[in-house]
Amino acid sequence: MPGGMGPRGARNFLTDEEKQNMPKVTKALLLRILSYLKPYWFQLLLVFMAIILSASVGLLPSIITGRVVDEALVGRNMALLIRLLVLAFVTLLASQVISVLESYINAWISQRIIFDMKNQMYDHLQHMPHSFFATEKQGDIITRMNTDISGVSSVISGTLSSIVSNIATVVTTLVALFTMSWQLAIVGILVIPLLILPTRSVGRTRWKLLNESQAKSDEMNQLINETLSVSGSLLVKLFTREKQEYDRFVQVNEEVTQLALKEQRSGKWFRVVMGMFTQVGPLLIYFAGGWLIISRADPALTVGTITASVALINRLYRPVESLLNIQVDFTRSLALFTRIFDYFDREIAITSPRNGRKPSMENNTHIRFCHVRFSYVPDKPILTDVDFFLPSGKTFAIVGPSGSGKSTLVNLIPRLYDVTGGFVSINGVNVKDYDLSFLRGNIGVVTQDTYLFNGTIRDNLLYAKADATQEEIEDACRVANIHDFIMNQPDGYDTEVGNRGLKLSGGEKQRLSIARVVLKNPKILILDEATSALDSISENAIQDALEAIMKGRTSVVIAHRLSTILKADSILVVKDGVIAEQGTHDELLAKGGVYRELYETQFRQVLDYESEHGEPAVLPMQEENVKE
């Protein structure tokens, strides 16, 4: 390809980074890749047969050209000339039709394989532990799911088919050339190095410019994303930076344009030279053929044979160049599959045991943490020895400084993470022995970071209970004190919430999240700072509702409101990875330990504030967690 670029701008050489990270070719890897082709082996066989047939039929127009010259033109036979031209047209048409059919079948195979791999990837990612999504970049996940798997299409319909097609074209063309005249065939082949060497040299230069252009394009995209997003555009307007941002954009856009022009100019003269080189082969064949005829060195050689050889040699150059770069295409294809398999090979650490237990949770849901240890990273423990018992139907409030492991602790109950030591049990059964869906189906969690899907209010509520009636939905929303707000919307429960609930305020999203858990009707309730996004008015309105929800349920509350802490049956004070203290408010004050210190330094002023203003206050130690 001109300028060292293959189809769709692909490079025909490997970069130093690609050479260093070249995937190891093993039998296991190749068999794994072929396993995705196995279900479609018959269609793939049809593709290969069509490619070979197309390559063979494609020879005929060139061969017929030789007969046109030797028999029709030299023999002055008009009827034969017409028949040969019609035959050439028919063979050309047949070759194109076969190519279209081959492309159609090829595309079908590619899309079916992509369909299979995306289904497999989505199912696999759904069962990955929560830690995977907490550490992996969301952009990387989307890239593997969409870009990488979609790239398999180019491997199947591009790389694989191109290799087979080029081999078929080269083999059939060489056979035809050597059959007609081995001397002319050798002369034509001698030109091939003239096409390859400059292609690689100029290709590297163009790729360097293309990389620089891509880097600047990324910079421009980043600028667009930052300044034209909802938050970014608001910031630009509030600080009246429109002119400055426009100037920045013009500058980056100018740099992108100049680099693009350089990249394009670098290929112009090269294409001129390459055009000349591609004509050298035919010229040499004319020279060699003319000498053989004039000198009578090959009496059997005819002008028609020379003409056919020229046509065939032009058909040979491009596939030969592609085959010489087969290592590049093959390596990139393997690298693509390796990236995809990297995700497939990630361990699904948290799984449901075979024949997992499903005991009744109607009347007893006590929770036990027995000397629990946990760490996200080895040698960096978050929880070192957590040991407590939560009786059924009681409420425990968890307090502690930010980063002490409160959220981590409650996440161990529904097995979002698994303990690294000790165990967590419900009703005396280790949570690892429960059927995972049954366990999580009986636990309701309201987090401080409320997430809503882009859809209607009804859609988000039905996520908790797909077969819920309208009456059940409205009752849940009344409990969460969100029903009146919904009914005041033009579309009621069919109101769109926007991306991540953008059209709702923080308090509205939080109450909708609480209503969703109410609709689920879990036996165990976990509130991870569930009222953090509510203002004082909303807090007062919903506090009673939360107490009603928790009544009769085993509840664990990460609390940032002193009023919530005081109403808990027991308080757990988390510090340095352990339960530093446990008891009621009065008991903990009497101990004169960590809780007393927190109360004297922080809680007392909050309590005085609540007494004076008659509204709940936020604990100073956790104000950073409260959403406006």
Walkthrough of the structure:
With 628 residues, this protein is of the alpha/beta class. Among the domains are: 11-181 and 301-344, ABC transporter type 1, transmembrane domain (ABC transporter transmembrane region fold), CATH 1.20.1560; 394-418 and 434-625, Rossmann fold. It contains 23 helices and ten strands. A six-stranded mixed β-sheet has the order 6-7-8-3-9-10. A four-stranded antiparallel β-sheet has the order 2-1-4-5, with no helix packed on it. Helix 3 (41-57) packs parallel to helix 7, helix 7 runs antiparallel to helix 8 and helix 8 (182-189) packs antiparallel against helix 11. The chain is elongated, with a radius of gyration of 36 Å. The two termini are 58 Å apart.
Produce a short descriptive summary:
This protein is α/β, with parallel strands linked by helices and 628 residues long. The chain is built from 23 helices and 10 strands.
Let me know the largest β-sheet: 6 strands, mixed
Query: Count of DSSP helices?
Result: 23
Content-based structural category: alpha/beta
Total strands: the figure is 10
Give the helix level as a range of percent.
Answer: 55-70%
The unreliable regions are 1-11, 617-628
Task: Tell me the fraction of residues in β-strands, as a range.
Answer: 5-15%
Rg, nearest Å: 36 Å
CATH architecture of the domain at 394-418 and 434-625: 3-Layer(aba) Sandwich
Separation of the first and last Cα atoms: 58 Å
User: Can you give the mean pLDDT?
Assistant: 79
Kindly identify the CATH topology of the domain at 394-418 and 434-625: Rossmann fold
Q: Reading side by side through the largest sheet, how are the strands ordered?
A: 6-7-8-3-9-10
CATH class of the domain at 394-418 and 434-625: Alpha Beta
**Bulk shape:** elongated
* Quaternary assembly: single chain
What is the CATH homology-level superfamily of the domain at 394-418 and 434-625?
Answer: P-loop containing nucleotide triphosphate hydrolases
